Amino acid sequence: MTTPQFPPLFSGQNAAGGDPFALAIATADVGCEAGLVIYDLGADLLRVAIVFAPDVSLSDAAVILPICGVGLQNAIGALGPPEVSVHLGWDGTVYVNGGRCGTLRMAASGKLDVEPDWLVVELNLTLWPASDETGLTPDQTALYAEGCSEIDAVALLESWVRHTLVGINTWADSGTAQIHREWGGLAHGLVGDITLAGQAGTYIGLDDRLGVLLKIEDDTIVIPLTANLTRPV
Is 76 exposed, middle or buried (0-12, 13-18, 19+ CB in 10 A)? Predict the structure, then answer.
């Protein structure tokens, strides 16, 4: 396998079959440089975790999750055929041509109103279906089953990191306006009556941190992106 090449200030580490998300969190907990990319390139699954060190509060830094999603859409768009569509769930679910194809998830240190020591985002993307009986799971798909079999996993990993870096630089330079527009155009499932983070209501939009605004009876509440923070089981 070709060793992935990353932009300056990023470094790669092969998880060698381990869990990149758990490894990245453990490494960040004891102290590591931002930009560490831990990856596991299986034949049917791409798993990658990136360690970030935001210089804003965790409540603001959580926008890195949708930035990574837009970076993935840009990477697949650059490498795949034009007819392939990628959409993004607010909870980090990745959809390709309407089917669930992967997930993005995030973990971080510290409290919401404090600058985190680290923030980790993991991409878990299905390349090949787990079974030939794909009709049994019509709502799930795999990247190569959707006309993207020519995309090399290493090239996709490299492209995702590059596009994500561009998005983070844009956010650092000019705020959330552009990611708000780009992610909003790729959003999946944010319409009408929805349930997120245990709250059921009517979707009415996104705030400037990409938190979801829900109308519940006569009240409007915000579900912040930090509701998606998780840790490996």
Answer: buried
